[in-house]
């Protein structure tokens, strides 16, 4: 029997609200404390996250771990999740290349993010990259205008930061170091506002 269109499926892994489940290994739920003052929202699982079923365990996750260490934040204090829960990719030879989720895919997944926000009740949410920012604040919000600027939304503060994968893609070391420092600064600020 068909689901009523607006209802959430019982489990994330059963979600068919958009087609991304077809090519993904599994849905990747958020992880962290049941209640946490600080939540980080990324874009979507990458290749390694799709295989492991856990967020931020690949290269972007390692960069994030370095940023947590520099900011003096324990990864296990923070609730980590993504705006989109299934990995969107295209085959390039043997590799699975990340593709940015479409706006409808992010919109379809927003109900899951809202459920996590309602359960975890973070005081501060760091939006990593433009996809997370659009899911949290609406599509008009621009990362370039708002990076490091706390925005009050739905009774909590949302602070946008660069996505760690963006830092990894920057061409030279100096630009990478500057963008990394920027993430660390936002994490420190978010932690201070959350506690
Ligand atoms: N990039 C993301 O946005 N999220 C992950 O979980 C991994 C990489």
TrEMBL record:
It comes from the Bacteria. Residues 29-184 form the Uracil-DNA glycosylase-like domain. Belongs to the uracil-DNA glycosylase (UDG) superfamily. Type 4 (UDGa) family. This is Type-4 uracil-DNA glycosylase. It comes from Noviherbaspirillum aridicola. The lineage of its organism: Bacteria, Pseudomonadati, Pseudomonadota, Betaproteobacteria, Burkholderiales. The chain holds residues 266 to 460 of 464 of the full protein.
């Amino acid at each position: 029997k068909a689901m009523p269109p607006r209802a959430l499926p019982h489990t994330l892994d059963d979600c068919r609200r958009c087609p991304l489940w077809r090519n993904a290994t599994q849905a990747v739920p958020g992880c962290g404390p049941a209640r946490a003052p600080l939540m980080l929202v990324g874009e979507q699982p990458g290749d390694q996250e799709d295989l492991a079923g856990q967020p931020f365990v690949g290269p972007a996750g390692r960069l994030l771990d370095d940023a947590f260490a520099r900011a003096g934040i324990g990864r296990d204090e923070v609730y980590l999740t993504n705006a989109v829960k299934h990995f969107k990719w295209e085959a390039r030879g043997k590799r699975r290349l990340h593709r940015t989720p479409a706006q409808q895919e992010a919109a379809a997944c927003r109900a899951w993010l809202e459920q996590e926000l309602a359960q975890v009740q973070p005081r501060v949410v760091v939006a990593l990259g433009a996809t997370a920012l659009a899911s949290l604040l609406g599509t008009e919000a621009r990362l370039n205008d708002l990076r490091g600027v706390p925005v009050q939304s739905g009774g909590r503060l949302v602070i946008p930061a660069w996505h760690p994968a963006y830092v990894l893609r920057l061409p030279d070391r100096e630009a990478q170091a500057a963008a990394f420092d920027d993430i660390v600064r936002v994490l420190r600020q978010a932690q201070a506002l959350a506690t």
